[in-house]
Amino acid sequence: MKIDVVIPVKDVDTWLAEAIHSVLNQESVTVSVTVVDAGSSEPIRLSRVFEHDNRVQLLRSESPLFVGAARDLGLKSGDAPLLGFLDADDLWPTDRCRRLAQVLEETKADIVVGRAEEFGERQGLMSGAAHFAGGVLIRRQAYEALGGHDPTLGTGEWVDLMGRARHVGLREVEVDALSLERRIHRLSTTVARRDLRSEYLRVVRAQLARREQTDG
Prior knowledge:
The chain contains 7 helices and 8 strands. The chain starts with a strand and ends with a helix. Strands 1, 2, 3, 4, 5, 6, 7 and 8 form an 8-stranded mixed β-sheet that branches. The chain is of the alpha/beta class.
């Protein structure tokens, strides 16, 4: 099974090599990794370990991109039937793609959601359903039918995408399989860019409007 994986990164590449390795180490699937430099102030460079690995490529946007737009840019260079997304500070367990792909095949679903575990600096780290971009596997056909991400959203872009998926009736399956190891640290967008949190309100309003349309 072939999977295209996009890893957006902007300025902070401390854990990028770890993230890439966690994708390349996936069992029983064929992966292609596109790292998208979403307009870093200093261009991101890949570790020499990946220089001659034809499974990994680096794209750079000269203008700053939000994460959703960066993911969409990365997907243009591939054609695999399944898609995965990973943030540059997170990790995948080695069997996650195999297990999620198997569920997609067996259920004929469009999207499969696994389980996330947090690790890092914060006290009281949590585990639960991985309703994050890095926690799912999605069919390319379904993703393209949605038109991809809203490129204007600085945060909440995945909540918006999944809301649209449910609105049009894409089939989503949730499984109890670890699919994302989510790193919590002070440089993450969720922590560092508190100014973007108001965009979640915009996303929620859009979802409520779609729901009212359906109910009406």
